[in-house]
Amino acid sequence: MTLRIAGESDGGNVRVRQIHADGAELEILPDHRSGFYQWFNFRVSGAAGRKLTLRFRPAWTTRS
To answer: pLDDT averaged over the chain?
Structure first.
């Protein structure tokens, strides 16, 4: 099954930068109308029985 990560849900607070076979790189987005990065919310599917490595980084450190 294909690994999928969704952060666009109501209250979602991550951006998927890249998905790998064994995990993903994610950005934590700032809270609404704030410079704080206090929480994150997302959904992972297609990972049953698999070990994943999820790497998080704040959006301000990522260069596009």
So the answer is: 79
